[in-house]
Amino acid sequence: MSKLEYIRERLSDATLRKRLAKVVADVDALIPQSEEEFGDVQKFGLYPAEQCIPFVTKQGTPFYQLDNMAMVPNGDTANHLRYGDFEFRQLEVLYIMARMDNAEAHNWLKDKLFQGCRVDARKKTEYKAKFRGHERADWKTIQVEWMKYCLNLKYRCNALFRKDLFDCKDKLPVEDATGTKYASNLFWGAALVEIDGKKYYFGCNVLGKLLAELRQNNGKLTYKLPEGMHLFGKPIIEK
Fold first, then answer.
1. 124-128 long-range CB contacts below 8 Å, 24 or more apart?
2. 176, 56 in Cβ contact below 8 A?
3. What is the distance between the alpha carbons of residues 217 and 234, in angstroms, rounded to a whole number?
4. Nearest residue to 177 (alpha-carbon basis) of 71, 20, 39
5. CATH number, domain at 178?
6. Cα–Cα distance between 31 and 80 in angstroms, integer?
7. Residue 115: CB partners within 8 Å, gap ≥ 6?
8. Domain total of the chain
9. Sign of the alpha-carbon dihedral angle for 19, 20, 22, 28
């Protein structure tokens, strides 16, 4: 079985497609038409394991700071992340805020839940439930652009992140989705598989590809956000 055949067969599974449809607007758009498209940010691919650097959300593991869920140590204020006057310790905080087009939602997260705390699946579910009906209609189409913005900010603020990023050298970072159950993990990351005796990471690996581009461009990802996009009731701070 060729790599393209493997990807197409996996993405023909109705259950996986249904799960991916919760993450992206068009599941078919994730399917590459050639192996050259494996490098496209929002295409599935098979990446040789020996050419990858996997990372997971677990303190103390290699390249931990590459993960959006990674926490900056509480007392390490020099590496805390800052958006305007908002100081936080985990990039997922800023990323998930923009899912809602509502200043009350943003400030609720800032003041009541996430500041100094760790985002987890339960808290994100609570956020989405509390502000159901305020999710941006265009979220699925802008989420990657917003991630670029967030990664630019993390690069500027966090020396621990920059060290892990460059310690990967020229290998492809991969958010390791092996054994996880969320379809979003195959979009942002990739899972280890074996095909004809060779190991690959299978997924879009959007986060990993953006990290590689961020490293190549010395901390600058070009992004395009909708005109009039707001956070905390004010226009996005352009960087």
1. 124/96, 127/96, 127/99, 127/100, 128/99
2. yes
3. 29
4. 20
5. 1.10.357.40
6. 37
7. 86, 87, 88, 93
8. 1
9. negative
Residues 6+ apart with CB under 8 A from 41: 144, 204, 206, 209, 210
Q: Which amino acid is at 6?
A: Y
The letter for the amino acid at 37 is E
**What is the reported pTM?**
0.94
pLDDT in tens, 104-127: 999 988 876 555 566 777 778 888
- Tell me the pLDDT tens digit for each residue of 183-212: 789 999 999 999 999 999 999 999 999 999
Closest by CA position to 173, among listed 64, 36, 34: 64
**How many residues are there in the chain?**
239
Using CA atoms, how far apart are residues 112 and 104, in angstroms rounded to an integer?
11
Q: Which residue range is the domain that position 120 belongs to?
A: 3-235
Find the Cα–Cα–Cα–Cα dihedral 144, 46, 52, 217, rounded to 10°: -40
- Both tokens assigned to 61: 């593991």
Encoded tokens for 33: 């038409």
Give the CA distances from residue 152 to residues 27, 90, 113, 123, in Å, rounded to whole numbers and listed in that order: 27, 14, 24, 25
152's tokens: 């630019």
